Give the backbone structure.
Amino acid sequence: MKNVSEERKRPAARQTAGPAASAPAHDDQRGTRNRVARSILDHGPSTAAELALRLELTQAAVRRHLDALAAEGVVEPREKRVYGARGRGRPAKAFALTDCGRDAFDQAYDDLAADALRWIAQSAGGGAKGEAAVAAFARARLAAQAEGYREAVESADPEARTEALAKALTADGYAATARSAPNPQLGEQLCQHHCPVVHVAEQYPQLCEAETEVFSRLLGTHVQRLATIAHGDGVCTTFVPKAGAGKAAHRTGGHTPQTTTASASTAGRNPA
């Protein structure tokens, strides 16, 4: 009878412990899910395989978290951009943060900033004069911000200046990285995986234009904005040519991307 009594108590003990034990498990799941979302923020649109490698999780676990984040409207699937020839088979699906997902990462005061820029434009008379006034404000704001980056960039070796700028931008919340362009002989790409002012930049691309001009001055070369989060791309991408890239392209028979400072037709929008 003693053994039977003990066996009857054990399930009861497990049932009592069930709800209490589930709370830490739920917290762990939420914490891992936040790590997945943060990794996408820091590195841009990512596949389940890339996230699994980065976070040291199984792909099956990552997919479960991605499904949950997609159901919450935090991430959305996109076709992964492929440089060069596409391999056989279906392309890997990459996941990017939605506007809702980005809102969770310190994007406050958007309405206030947009209202302030709208007031600047209207006070200048609207139309072309208003756009010019917003552009002048954006340049002044970015010029002051750039002074904080100048020392870091100028103290770096010429070939390391894009990386130095990326680190300075990351310290300001832009989650930036520097990587080789698809043709490394031609240059690098400065990638910003987060934009604290994205919702304002959607309405006022002058912010992106001024930022591109600042990058050009800091790096001492003309640059080309290839994509922006404000335009709907997963990452703000700026092409930075290497010195002598034109000669390298001529020797290899390639083409050097046209590099320009920001203009209303490119900065803040993804040029076709």
About this structure: DSSP finds ten helices and seven strands in the chain. The chain has a mean pLDDT of 79. Residues 113 and 200 are 7 Å apart (CA to CA).
